[in-house]
Amino acid sequence: MTATNNLILDEEMPERYLTEMNEEKHEVALSTHDLEVFYGEKRALHNADLKFERYKITALIGASGSGKSTFLRSLNRMNDTVATVNGQIMYRGLDINTKDIDVYEMRKHIGMVFQRPNPFAKSIYDNITFALKQHGIKDRKILDERVETSLKQAALWDEVKDDLHKSALELSGGQQQRLVIARAVAMKPDILLLDEPASALDPISSAKIENTLLELKKDYTIIIVTHNMQQAARVSDYTAFFHMGEVVEYDLTRKIFTRPKVQRTIDYVNGNFG
Known about the structure:
Blueprint: H1 3-8, E1 18-21, E2 24-39, E3 42-45, E4 51-53, E5 57-61, H2 68-74, E6 84-91, E7 94-95, H3 103-109, E8 110-113, H4 124-134, H5 140-153, H6 157-160, H7 173-185, E9 191-195, H8 203-216, E10 221-225, H9 229-235, E11 238-243, E12 246-252, H10 253-258, H11 263-269
Parallel strand pairs: 5-10, 5-11, 8-9, 9-10
Antiparallel strand pairs: 1-2, 2-3, 2-4, 2-6, 6-7, 11-12
Helix pairs in contact: 4-5, 4-7, 5-7, 7-8
């Protein structure tokens, strides 16, 4: 591993990358510069210069095909095998969109949860510990502690604590999604990316996911793609509106939904779009 990669793995590295947001200085966890994504010859994303504040939830909204999921997947290099991603993705002072970055190590710091729950065909306990064991954590006491902590963070512990060796596939859809979130946070990432995590769930399960996210932001920087504008309004601190492969407007959520500056944003949040 190169010296550059070692910087990414330094848990004690001070974060002093600040930006001017709403006339106050806030700590930035991740930022993108001149980011553009191509699928073959087709440019799917451009003008995506964003800065994400630490310990806040940022929602990415927009119509299907607007580029928001493409952008999200680029943040931890999930598009590497299917697209060409140009530009900078800055994390801890490093551009993680370069060839010398160890992508698998980087994903320990920038975790991801997908649209549909994808638990492993293993027990609840083994779902949480699988990646931990792969990364060399074998001590049973540490594994037990990490399982309990992550399940509590995902608001699932009380529901499954007596059934940890039951198959994860026996859980309800909402429970499976919270298990997947627990699996992600068990690695203690710095940033959590979520792509439509509640879109396949019923309203009660969706509400539990939202409450979980509000609790998780105490410890994590969260970036979430959602089609549900009410959900974005409820859980996010900042919102970015994507349209036809570019970021049209990015601001505090309350401003995006009450005083947007761009007509296309006004049309979208008022339902007069298309």
